[in-house]
């Protein structure tokens, strides 16, 4: 039987394993593992097998290994992981798509009962309906101010009740009631806290961005640059078209108010002298765009209205009779 490794040997083996993973992988998900059981973690490892590796350990051990790797290789990019190693966290090393790996991790969530003293991660609402409990159990509902009635020998909740608010600790009465109702309000699994990718650390919400979101944010940025450039009269590529248009409007306004003119201004002055010309031009433009379609339609209508010529047979005789 092989001798059991000592603590020192375990630390050396852990350091070697983590340093090897840091050399092989450039993408890491930092995940929170609160309330995650060993069986659940094993299922997650099995689901990610192939292109991802889940590594758990004490924060001090992981920080020590990261520092050792940085000192031995001279590569300081992984030092940005150290501030993220706070609380009950683990590391998922992956070579796959970060979004797909994050979605795969989120699949392995299991329902859990509300235990006393646990901080609620979500609001817990008890739905209305028949509870299946006998009338002797009404004391639980009375303590929690839940409106009930007796219906066919069982307790029925009349209206939905917010039993626990997010961030509140679960009390003994709330835990007992939820247990009697068979409600498992919470679900736990690995939660991605931060994403490390080739030296950059960012929030996991970035993985949910689509191309449309990026285009929208880029358009907002361009509009802000344009507004700032116009406000301080500083020419930029985004503001240049607006500056040219505004300059043209100013020159046109001066030409209209003075004797100075140019070809484009002459047309505007002509419209201002005789507004009826502008109305004629506005009507002629749609007609030209249709390419004479109304005229063709009118001719077609005239053909339909013309009476059909009577044949010889219709008149009752033939020219050859």
From TrEMBL:
Residues 292-321 are annotated as: Disordered. SUPFAM superfamilies: Ribosomal protein L10-like (SSF160369). The keyword Transferase does not apply. One of its GO terms (biological process) is ribosomal large subunit assembly. One of its GO terms (molecular function) is large ribosomal subunit rRNA binding. Belongs to the universal ribosomal protein uL10 family. Ribosomal protein P0 is the functional equivalent of E.coli protein L10. P0 forms a pentameric complex by interaction with dimers of P1 and P2. This is 60S acidic ribosomal protein P0. It comes from Arachis hypogaea. The lineage of its organism: Eukaryota, Viridiplantae, Streptophyta, Embryophyta, Tracheophyta.
